[in-house]
């Protein structure tokens, strides 16, 4: 049995069309999953369902053999942390230290233990110099790193990144990706929700959502052989990949490709 | 707008920084009561002296506290003037006739324009204000030439002066005390102090924990929301709407067009924040541990005893009518 199982999950907001239709998914411990989807494909809704912020219309979510319900939601939340998109809207504390502490305070961890953990995890995300700073003095990337520290301090098994890098500048984005890789190496299960194919390539497995349904669920290497899947799911290929596939279309072998490029440059 | 620091807290090392916030909050409240019990200027002057001594021992810059008084300067002037004009007890000290004549009014207008231009200099604003008031008095008193429109009797009574000084000093002491509290206590400590002090309220169904969380989240979001307001104003200004320009009616319209998007954004934010808090195991009303533990130490005891001493002193002064 996988660590997290989603079976026949359906969801709809009141009186609107079905947002998620018959989602079946299982995620193993230590896996890095990328959930890709266009705007409105239901990917963020799926994240909220997994942490119990929304409850499914039909179907079930089972984590370590425990079915998510009103009774078990508080136990299950101890196992899952989520980093949201907007760095400003998830910073609860008045200072960095307060914010890292927030989750632990809710878990009723004693003060001395909390202070130790805050120092440890702040160092881990490279924010130990900033513990007394207020959120308005921090950049978006720094706030996201603090959100990660807050989740690590709660010692969850899974971290969900719900478009956590989409509001950051390229530098902070690359930095955050490095931290995520590090966490994965240490054995955390990572679910990354994104519409950025380039980001999804770091994962082990890719799930493409299209209009609320699972369109593809496969290894990254398999997905790379099918660029048409991304276009079908209304996702934009990164420039480098687009050039690669376009060139492949014109020349099947490397030799043909080379000739084609020569011709192209001579015509100019 | 990026570096707004909420509260007036300034890091320091004096004894006031080492006190438990609860001690400080209660001491300030008690001292305020003590100040209100005082009845004469001499007593108030002694209290003012004590406040200054507290500042000096606490290594707090008096200039800094004085700067904190700036926003209420108008209130102080208003109280002072109000008392001088409307208190008609005791012997008459000043009884002058002020004249509104053609010449004095023209000079008055010119003087006002000069004053307005001078205030552009920013520095010495307060001094200029007093200079202006003195000028107005001199103009109305001595320039009695030309057609006289009306006259006005400017009468100052002994009690009026006394009361105005009394009220102003009392206000000064109270504001100094509260400034000392906010200068030496971090907003987080202050909230926690209030939270602990409100604990007993849970017996009547008010959760001090939730209350403290509300305060700290509000504090945390003030800079964010101000930043947002700034962005919206810039966005609107870039499309030709300017809050600083136009008639009052236009300005009100502008403010509405600022408030509506701000409310929408604030609601969206609060929804996101609620999700973030819930996903981090927050359950309203459930017991939480805290990272900071407050403890009442020897220093706190000493300050508490001194505060009680001062309160007793002021009660004695009132009952026995000393000074």
Give the largest interface pair and sizes.
A-B, 42 and 34 residues
Question: How do the strands line up in the largest sheet of chain B?
Answer: 1-2
Radius of gyration of chain A: 21 Å
> What's the main sheet of chain B like?
2 strands, antiparallel
Low-confidence stretches of chain B: 1-6
Number of strands of chain B: 2
- Rounded mean pLDDT score of chain A: 90
Strand content of chain B: 5-15%
Residues in β-strands, percent of chain A = 15-25%
Total separate domains of chain A: 2
Named CATH topology of the largest domain in chain A: Rossmann fold
Order of helices and strands of chain A: EEEHEEHEHHHEHEHEEHHHH
**DSSP E strands of chain A, number:** 10
Shape descriptor of chain A reads globular
Number of helices of chain B: 12
Tally of helical segments of chain A: 11
Shape of chain B: flat
Structural summary, described in words:
The complex is a heterodimer of chains A (268) and B (323). With 268 residues, chain A is α/β, with parallel strands linked by helices. Chain A has two domains: 4-225, 3-Layer(aba) Sandwich (Rossmann fold), CATH 3.40.50.300; 238-268, no CATH class. Chain A has helices at residues 43-50, 73-77, 96-106, 111-124, 140-153, 170-185, 197-200, 220-224, 227-232, 239-250, 254-267; strands at residues 4-12, 18-27, 32-37, 58-63, 66-67, 80-83, 158-162, 189-194, 205-210, 213-219. A six-stranded mixed β-sheet of chain A has the order 6-7-8-3-9-10, sandwiched between helices. In chain A, strands 2-1-4-5 form a four-stranded antiparallel β-sheet, covered by helices on one side. In chain A, helix 4 crosses helix 5. Chain B is mainly α and 323 residues long. Helix content of chain B is 68%, strand content 6%. Chain B has a two-stranded antiparallel sheet with strand order 1-2. Chain B is flat and about 80 Å long. The two termini of chain B are 50 Å apart. Residues 1-6 of chain B have low confidence and may be disordered. Chain A binds chain B through residues 48, 51, 53, 74, 77-78, 80-82, 84, 86, 88-95, 97-98, 101-111, 114-115, 118, 134-137, 150-151, 154, and chain B through 2-6, 187-188, 216-217, 219-220, 223-224, 227, 269, 272-273, 275-283, 286-293.
């Amino acid at each position: 049995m996988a660590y997290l199982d989603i079976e026949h999950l359906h969801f709809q907001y009141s009186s609107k069309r079905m947002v998620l239709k018959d989602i079946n998914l299982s995620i193993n411990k230590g896996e890095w999953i990328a959930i890709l989807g266009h705007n409105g494909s239901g990917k963020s809704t799926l994240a909220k369902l997994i942490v119990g912020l929304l409850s499914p219309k039909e179907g079930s979510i089972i984590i370590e053999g425990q079915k998510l319900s009103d009774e078990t939601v508080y136990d299950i939340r101890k196992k899952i942390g989520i980093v949201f998109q907007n760095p400003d809207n998830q910073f609860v504390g008045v200072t960095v230290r307060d914010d890292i502490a927030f989750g632990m305070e809710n878990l009723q961890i004693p003060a001395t233990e909390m202070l130790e953990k805050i120092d440890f995890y702040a160092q881990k995300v490279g924010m130990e110099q900033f513990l007394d700073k207020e959120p308005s003095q921090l950049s978006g990337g720094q706030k996201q790193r603090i959100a990660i520290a807050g989740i690590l301090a709660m010692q969850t098994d899974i971290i969900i990144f719900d478009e956590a890098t989409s509001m950051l500048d390229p530098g902070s984005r690359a930095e955050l990706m490095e931290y995520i890789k590090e966490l994965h190496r240490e054995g955390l299960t990572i679910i990354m929700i994104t519409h950025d194919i380039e980001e999804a390539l770091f994962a082990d497995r890719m799930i493409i959502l299209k209009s609320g349904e699972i369109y593809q669920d496969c290894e990254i290497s398999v997905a790379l052989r099918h660029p048409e899947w991304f276009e079908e799911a209304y996702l934009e290929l990164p420039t480098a990949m687009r050039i690669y596939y376009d060139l492949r279309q014109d020349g099947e072998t490397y030799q043909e490709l080379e000739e084609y490029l020569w011709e192209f440059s001579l015509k100019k | 707008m990026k570096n707004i620091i909420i509260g007036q807290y300034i890091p320091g090392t004096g004894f006031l920084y080492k006190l438990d916030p609860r001690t400080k909050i209660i001491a300030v409240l008690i001292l305020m009561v003590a100040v209100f019990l005082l009845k004469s200027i001499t007593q108030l002057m002694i209290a003012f002296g004590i406040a200054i001594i507290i500042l000096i021992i606490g290594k707090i810059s008096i200039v800094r506290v004085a700067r904190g008084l700036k926003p209420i300067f108008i209130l102080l002037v208003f109280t002072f003037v109000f008392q001088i004009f409307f208190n008609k007890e005791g012997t008459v000290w000043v009884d002058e006739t002020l004249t509104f004549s053609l010449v004095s009014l023209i000079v008055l207008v010119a003087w006002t324009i000069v004053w307005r231009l001078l205030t552009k200099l920013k520095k010495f604003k307060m001094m200029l204000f007093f200079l202006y008031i003195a000028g107005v008095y001199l103009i109305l008193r001595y320039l009695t030439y030309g057609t006289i429109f009306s006259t006005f009797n400017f009468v100052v009574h002994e009690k009026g002066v006394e009361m105005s000084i009394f009220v102003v000093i009392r206000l000064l002491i109270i504001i100094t005390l509260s400034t000392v509290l906010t200068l030496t206590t971090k907003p987080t400590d202050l909230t926690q102090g209030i939270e602990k002090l409100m604990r007993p309220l849970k017996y009547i169904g008010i959760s001090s924990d939730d209350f403290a969380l509300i305060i700290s989240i509000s504090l945390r979001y003030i800079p964010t929301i101000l930043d947002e307001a700034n962005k919206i104003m810039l966005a609107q200004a870039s499309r030709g709407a300017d809050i600083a320009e136009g008639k009052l009616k236009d300005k009100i319209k502008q403010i509405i067009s600022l408030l509506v998007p701000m409310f929408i954004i604030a609601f969206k934010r609060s929804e996101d924040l609620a999700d973030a808090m819930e996903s981090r195991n927050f359950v309203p009303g459930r017991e939480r541990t805290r990272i900071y533990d407050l403890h009442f130490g020897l220093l706190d005891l000493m300050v508490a005893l001194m505060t009680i001493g001062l309160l007793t002193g002021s009660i004695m002064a009132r009952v026995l009518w000393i000074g």
